[in-house]
Write a structure and sequence with these properties.
Length: about 400
């Protein structure tokens, strides 16, 4: 069977590519990685070192002419969570434009300008997307669904915690797949009972099974144009209408809460450790241990803001050191470096307390060992990459199922 051609945007160090290539069914024909705030493009350098520089672009995607991007079957990427609001402009005869620099609109531009747009999209984001912004819960996701609908796509989504399916990290992310109306899957989804799609016949539910009890069903139309949605969607409501799974087809959303159903093996933090090969700089000096204990501990104290305002601050204790018999906590971008922190991982080893190594962090995201190792790339930077990355195993499972469905 023919491999599907892929455009990979916001590629980072290539997590999407690894997951898709692991299936043997996908071929990346063009990729883009650009870090706006930094001079040295380290992620792009790692990407090129691993996958080669051919057909890889390291420039701001919003400035890449659509004509330079080749046709492909599927567009993938983990795009940043930003403010997706829409403004009207007089100069723009189409009346709509998203904020400059907001990368959702770069995807939108590619889809709307290409003569042969990709038939499938496979995208990832933080689960906060379903309820942002806090002043208008769910508005950003509604804009996204509506804009995809107008471009001729139906969408299914699910929030997946990798650890719920035996993977080594508790990392909760929203994954969504869009199907163009010219595809057989779009027609199937349109005809299907949407509850059944969410329960067991959808691409994501086949890859990541759920218990057949969906809760908090909501069915609603997303009305109005993008500007109206931007200004009025869910105004004055405390909760987002979007639950952790759903479909959107023909202007209507059906969303419900799904629960993971998995009984297989589990990888835990202890399984990824490099115990015998850890160099001294990862060990915590005895004099720093009290600082770590304080930051990880519970607190109830009076703090003073810069303005002089005093307030009561409290937070609960974190497990310290991290439990080895469970999946790890989520890796964040500030994971690297020696300074004590509430959020960095610390494990107990025979030689004392220590932080996690770059290889261990790679393993928690199911990357190959030393994937991010490159001259000039610090350990802290490697940790930052993993804080930004996704769990490769999730992409692989969905990618495999999507390929099967396309070829049914």
């Amino acid at each position: 069977m023919k491999k599907l051609k892929v455009i990979e945007l916001f590629a980072g160090v290539g997590g999407f590519r690894l997951g898709l290539e692991n299936t043997g069914n996908y071929e990346v024909v063009w990729s883009n990685q650009w870090e706006p705030a930094t001079k040295a493009q380290h992620a792009s350098m790692v990407y090129e070192a691993r996958f080669g520089s051919e057909n890889h672009s390291n420039q701001d995607i919003s400035e890449v002419p659509t004509g330079e991007i080749p046709d492909a079957d599927i567009l993938v990427g983990g795009f940043p969570c930003q403010d997706y609001s829409v403004a009207t402009t007089l100069q723009n005869s189409r009346g709509l434009i998203g904020k400059k620099g907001v990368l959702w609109w770069s995807i939108h531009k590619i889809l709307s300008e290409k003569k042969n747009p990709p038939k499938y999209l496979f995208l990832e984001n933080v689960d906060r997307l379903l309820k942002s912004p806090s002043t208008q819960r769910g508005r950003d996701f509604a804009i996204m669904l509506k804009s995809l609908g107008e471009l001729g796509y139906a969408v299914e989504w699910r929030v997946i915690n990798a650890a719920d399916y035996g993977m080594p990290q508790r990392r909760r992310r929203i994954f969504f797949i869009a199907y163009h109306k010219s595809t057989a899957i779009y027609k199937k989804l349109k005809k299907a009972d949407s509850s059944q799609w969410l329960n067991d016949i959808g691409t994501i539910s086949e890859a990541f099974p759920v218990h057949h009890i969906l809760e908090n069903h909501k069915r609603f139309s997303i009305e109005g144009n993008l500007v109206e949605i931007s200004e009025t969607f869910n105004q004055g409501e405390k909760l987002s209408p979007f639950a952790n799974s759903g479909v959107f087809v023909d202007g209507r959303a059906h969303t419900a809460k799904a629960f993971a159903n998995y009984e297989g093996g589990k990888t835990v933090l202890n399984d990824v450790l490099q115990n015998g090969e850890v160099t001294p700089e990862f060990f915590i000096p005895a004099e720093d241990v009290p600082k770590w204990e304080y930051l990880k501990g519970s607190k109830k104290e009076v703090r003073t803001a810069k303005t002089g305002f005093q307030y009561n601050y409290s937070e609960g204790a974190m497990v310290f050191p991290d439990a080895l018999d469970n999946a790890s906590r989520t890796i964040i971008t500030g994971e690297g470096g020696k300074s004590p922190s509430r959020f960095k991982h610390v494990v107990q080893s025979s030689k004392g307390l220590r932080r996690l190594t770059p290889v261990e962090l790679e393993r928690l995201n199911m990357f190959p060992d030393d994937h991010t190792k490159l001259e000039g790339v610090t350990d802290a930077k490697r940790a930052f990459f993993m804080g930004n990355a996704l769990v490769v195993g999730v992409v692989e499972k969905i990618g495999k199922k999507l390929f099967d469905k396309i070829n049914q």
